[in-house]
Amino acid sequence: MALGMSIGEKIIAIKEELPDHVLLVAVSKTKPVEQILEAYEAGHRCFGENKVQELTAKSANLPADIQWHMIGHLQTNKVKYIAPFIHTIHSVDSLKLLKEINKQAAKNERMIDCLFQVRIAEEETKFGLAKAELESILNSEAFQALNNIRIVGLMGMSTNTGDAKIRLAEFNNLKEIYTAIKEDFFESSDSFKELSMGMSDDYQEAIKAGSTMVRIGSTIFGARNYAVKHS
Ligand SMILES: *Cc1c(COP(=O)(O)O)cnc(C)c1O
Asked: What's the gap in Å between 156 CA and the centre of ligand 1?
């Protein structure tokens, strides 16, 4: 992005660059509501956060027509705080968590869109399911009984490396897993169609590999300063 562009200008420039089938999730974690409002005023409605407390505080202070996406690791005991309003959860990594999302969605008489997070990176630090673990969840009776969640696709994060070839290979791998899971479990589902992959540094490769949702933060809002307290 060109220097000196406002947040609104950056949002508009990125959306112009993205193919029509790719949704921009603007990752606003650590950024103040004023900056989110700048993006909102430029017409953007879809924002991603990775911490429950920050997400609930921001949603309470921003317009109700924002679609909030939870993109970070989610603890089961915190689902209840976001269940009333969350639009999509990208980071489902266990059946236990999915059951709790279903329970809290039912309590709120709503349906919550979910993606399973699949581990494609070599780093041990990245959360996510192996393909076999995902298949065993999808084959379970407990999964069949969940009526207040809708599985809309898969999410993954590439290895944090400067090597674009490695990232592209990992995204291609996730696309293959997505295609296999779609065929084996969601052939007749119209909702299972999303592949959430790509961040500021790698969204070009992710789109080449078939991404339908990119999660972009620092390119829009600038670098994050974790030294500042945000609670
Ligand atoms: C922070 C974060 C992003 C955005 O990262 P940028 O490099 O700032 O674009 C995307 N996805 C997840 C899961 C994140 O935690």
From this structure: 11
Q: Which two tokens stand for residue 192?
A: 């299972």
Residues in contact with ligand 1 by the CB-under-6-Å rule are 27, 29, 50, 71-72, 157, 199-201, 215-219
CB–CB of 14/219 below 8 Å? yes
Alpha helices in the chain (DSSP H): 7-17, 33-41, 52-60, 79-82, 95-107, 131-139, 141-144, 164-185, 203-208, 218-221
Q: What is the pLDDT of residues 116-172, one digit of tens each?
A: 999 998 877 668 999 999 999 999 999 999 999 999 999 999 998 889 999 999 999
191 sits in the region (left: phi over 0; alpha: psi -120 to 50; else beta) called: alpha
- Beta pairing partners, 24: 214
* Å from CA of 109 to ligand 1 middle: 30
Name the nearest CA neighbour of 158 among 185, 119, 114. Answer: 119
CB 5 within 8 A of CB 17: no
